[in-house]
Recover the amino acids of this structure.
């Protein structure tokens, strides 16, 4: 009842059916994050971290646990299904919400391109005769058709996909550990966690800036707050649980893979996109390479794109409905009950960017860095929102959750952003500048950002 | 002949001659529930203002069970106008179809696809009922007759459900939708507001995480 009243307070009413429990929230987050996400970017994280991918994932998990804590606080204050766009807009000010939404849009709008590219690289590893760009077109065509037909993930399908991914992961771990016991690879070692020869904090944070990609999507759980049986409290718990579960899975798989890498020194410089599949081949032979490649293609190219498409459509729809993006993005197809314009826009972008990036050696790295840059900046603003909303405006005495935790989380993320790929930093700044320009145009047109329940004249 | 309830007219317009639904079931259900609430509002049985709804008369059995239940829903839980529409949409389609079948407007037919798989369709028993359902909206668009509030409501719903082609008017789609929206807007405040609410709900349904 309290949640219901809170929703009404912001000019909305709870409309979505409350029927999603804790386990399904966690499963949804896991599908969004992909339990086998490191399969695709392992080579990149290995190279960036100087051969310490486990440390990169550990630091990434800790950083995002602070972010999850701030999400939980903002979901509690504003129990609306939205994104960080909503929380920054309501917690700080609508113009800040616009710019945060703009930055997180970089993450959401590029994610499908990366998913298609990774899935295509995985399929190209299985069938090299078909070039990556052709796989990109194929994946986009299949997914666009599915999305335009209005086919969605269901709770049951989410569970099936999670079980499927966990079976493949268990298979890899069993075969991998068995191979290590048989003397393949480098045997058990702590080097993937800490290597004194290569360790330095800038290297670790640079690697975290790539590794966090695997965790992105945990925030998607907040979209289900209005359907959650336990309201905002349960959503916060689910985020933490999903992050820890994913972190444990990621750390375990990259640890085993790092010990099986056939040419560790070569991987430090080559940043191979197929390093994980090479490690799988060392452990179990070509069949395990095939299984891990196809699992990546299916999970990234089909399951994850379904949820990613819904997420980006929701954000585009919400911003367009609030008149902060062109109105055509808020139009939906009544015939299929889908946001057809948003789907077509994202598909067109995905084909263009996917093909362009498939022709670059560092395509996965560039896309990952850009996506992470958008998300990291948005998460920093989320931490600021907690401090502004609770500590500055609300005079909260909960110093840990409303001041210290967001400050620590923000500090880690700022270090990650500072040490990220320079190209990503430059493009991120250009994107932010474009957002500021768009905001200026909105003001000049007399359409200053306004969110339901937040008066425009307050700012 | 007695006029059919608004949601019955909308049902008939939204189906092809073979009984095939022309739009997504979720959009249709919201449209039907919105149409029933519009009818209640135009009859003065519920009052709608600034996103809120309340019953003006006690719930009573007036022959249309669906509208009666919707009125009882509003009477039992006055407040946000979107709530009863969302709740009533749950079984709006099946109940409307059942009522139209019972009253003889629709005819249940079963065929076998490729001689094996049985499929059931609900076809109009008389195509004249479909023509009558859309005649008001056609007349309003063509300017043959001044639309009343009920006709304006139907025009608005036809526009937001993108059923303009079913009016069989020789006008470009965009222009026709624009005219239908204009008729709806120029009618009563309640019509404009409720049509807007239905459109908003259709948008939200289209971006829902789970259906």
């Amino acid at each position: 009842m309290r949640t219901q009243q809170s929703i009404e307070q912001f000019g909305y009413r709870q409309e979505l059916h409350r029927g999603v429990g804790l386990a399904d929230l966690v499963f949804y987050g896991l599908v969004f994050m992909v339990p086998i996400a490191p399969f695709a970017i392992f080579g990149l994280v290995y190279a960036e971290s100087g051969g310490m991918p486990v440390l990169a994932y550990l630091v990434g998990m800790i950083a995002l646990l602070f972010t999850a804590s701030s999400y939980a606080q903002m979901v509690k204050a504003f129990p609306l299904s939205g994104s960080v766009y909503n929380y920054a807009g309501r917690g700080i000010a609508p113009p800040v919400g616009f710019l945060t939404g703009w930055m997180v849009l970089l993450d959401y709008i590029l994610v499908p391109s990366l998913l298609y590219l990774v899935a295509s690289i995985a399929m190209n590893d299985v069938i090299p005769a078909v070039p990556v760009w052709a796989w990109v077109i194929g994946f986009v065509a299949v997914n666009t058709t599915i999305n335009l037909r209005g086919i969605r993930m269901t709770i049951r399908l989410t569970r099936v996909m999670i079980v499927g991914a966990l079976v493949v992961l268990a298979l890899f771990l069993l075969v991998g550990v068995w191979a290590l016991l048989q003397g393949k690879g480098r045997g058990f070692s702590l080097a993937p966690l800490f290597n004194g020869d290569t360790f330095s904090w800038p290297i670790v944070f640079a690697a975290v800036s790539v590794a966090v990609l695997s965790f992105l999507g945990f925030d998607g759980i907040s979209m289900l707050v209005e359907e959650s049986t336990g309201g905002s409290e349960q959503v916060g718990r689910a985020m933490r649980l999903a992050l820890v579960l994913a972190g444990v899975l990621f750390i375990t798989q990259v640890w085993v893979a790092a010990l099986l890498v056939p040419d560790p020194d070569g991987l430090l410089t080559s940043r191979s996109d197929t390093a994980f599949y090479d490690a799988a081949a060392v452990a179990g032979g070509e069949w395990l390479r095939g299984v891990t490649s196809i699992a990546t293609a299916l999970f990234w190219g089909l399951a994850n794109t379904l949820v990613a498409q819904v997420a980006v459509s929701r954000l585009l729809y919400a911003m367009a409905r609030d008149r902060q993006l062109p109105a055509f993005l808020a139009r939906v197809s009544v015939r299929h009950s889908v946001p057809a314009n948003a789907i077509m826009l994202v598909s067109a972008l995905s084909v263009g960017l996917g093909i362009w990036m498939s022709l670059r050696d560092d395509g996965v790295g560039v896309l990952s860095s850009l996506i992470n840059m958008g998300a990291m900046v948005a998460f920093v603003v989320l931490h600021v929102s907690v401090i502004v909303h609770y500590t500055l405006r609300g005079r909260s005495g909960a110093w840990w959750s409303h001041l210290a935790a967001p400050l620590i989380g923000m500090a880690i993320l700022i270090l990650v952003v500072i040490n990220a790929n320079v190209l990503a930093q430059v493009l991120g700044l250009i994107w932010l500048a474009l957002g500021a320009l768009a905001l200026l145009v909105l003001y000049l047109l007399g359409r200053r950002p306004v969110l339901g329940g937040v008066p425009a004249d307050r700012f | 002949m007695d006029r059919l309830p608004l949601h019955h007219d909308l049902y008939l317009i939204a189906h092809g001659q073979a009984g095939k639904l022309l739009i997504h079931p979720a959009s249709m259900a919201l449209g039907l529930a919105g149409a029933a609430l519009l009818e209640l509002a135009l009859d003065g049985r519920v009052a709608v203002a600034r996103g809120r709804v309340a019953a003006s008369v006690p719930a009573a059995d007036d022959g249309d069970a669906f509208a009666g239940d919707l009125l009882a829903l509003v009477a039992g839980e006055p407040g946000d106008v979107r709530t009863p529409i969302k709740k009533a949409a749950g079984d709006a389609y099946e109940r409307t179809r059942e009522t139209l079948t019972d009253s003889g407007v629709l005819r249940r037919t079963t065929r076998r696809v490729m001689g094996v798989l049985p499929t059931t369709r609900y076809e109009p028993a008389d195509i004249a009922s479909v023509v009558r359902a859309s005649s008001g909206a056609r007349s309003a668009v063509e300017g043959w007759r001044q639309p009343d509030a009920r006709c304006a409501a139907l025009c608005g719903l036809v526009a937001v459900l993108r059923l303009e082609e079913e009016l069989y008017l020789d006008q470009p789609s965009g222009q026709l939708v624009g005219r239908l929206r204009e008729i709806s807007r120029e009618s009563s405040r309640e019509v404009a507001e409720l049509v807007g609410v239905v459109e908003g709900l259709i948008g939200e349904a289209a971006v829902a995480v789970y259906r």
